[in-house]
Amino acid sequence: MAARATWKGFLKLGELVCAVGLYTAVSASDRVSLHMVNRKTGNRLSRRFVDSQTGKVVEREEQVKGYEVDSGDYILLEPDEIAEVTPKGDKALTIERFLPCGEVDDLYFDRPYYLRPADQSSQASFAVIREGLRKQKVAAVASAVLFRRPRSVLIRAHDEGLIATTLNYDYEVRSAQEAFEDIREVKMEPEMLDLARHIIETKSGRFQPETFDDRYDDALAELVRAKMEGRKIAPPKKSSAKVVSLLDALRESAGVAGGAKAAAKKAAKKAAAKKSAAGKAPAEKRAAGKAKAGKSSASPTRKAG
């Protein structure tokens, strides 16, 4: 594997141990990168820490972390004090339990990593763990000290390797109940739900991340190219929002009756057809009467006696 491991250690399941490496699965390195530059000189700016009261630059050796206990009042924490209380890692990713795949709410997913054997001798043990997870359709929950912090990690089988996803702590995930508590109940007409179902069915597909466009990054890249080539680019057109009822919006989205305009056209067409049919009825009746009279006069008369 060409990429460099961000962490190396051992995956442990009881007495089964294999050397593994974690590799970043998600990276923003391919995005357009912008820097802060001095408009006058064109030189790149460097970031420096400044004392908020004196305005003077504070050099690295004078910088220290602090916890604010009151406004402007901090408890200072020296680097060696922090290092002393920080949990020490033993380079072990220890599997503690197994869960059915899909049981962990993805709100708890933090960052995914590729997990693979670190050497040839570890591949057999690694394969046993991977195939065990795959056959049983379970994920493993493991613990480790990663990047100086104790973390819980969800491990799942993926192709020939494993995906290790660090998990958010429970206190980091905000309450859904609090987020949704003021959403009022809405009474919906049956047609609305039928239209919503129709829209979902007609737009159903498969997950294809390669089709997703990062329009912000694309726009920045195009802007950079245009400035390099000395040309101007037209700003994107703003979409005009029409004010329509919820039902009409659903109808237009579903392509059913074309919304309010089509509904009006349909009603007008229906009325015109009704009027035309009403006008045709007397004419057809008169024509039928004439045909009947003509038929009677043309009939042969029977001679008497």
Automatic annotation (TrEMBL):
Q: Give the classification, highest ranks.
A: Bacteria, Pseudomonadati, Pseudomonadota, Alphaproteobacteria, Hyphomicrobiales
This protein is called Non-homologous end joining protein Ku
Query: Where is the segment annotated Disordered?
Result: 270-305
Xref: InterPro entries? DNA_bd_Ku70/Ku80 (IPR006164), Prok_Ku (IPR009187), SPOC-like_C_dom_sf (IPR016194)
Q: Tell me which SMART domains the record gives.
A: Ku78
Gene this chain is encoded by:
ku
Domain annotation Ku: ranges: 55-184
UniProt GO BP: DNA recombination; double-strand break repair via nonhomologous end joining
Source organism (scientific name): Ancylobacter aquaticus
> What is the top-level taxon of the source organism?
Bacteria
- Family to which the UniProt record says this protein belongs: Belongs to the prokaryotic Ku family.
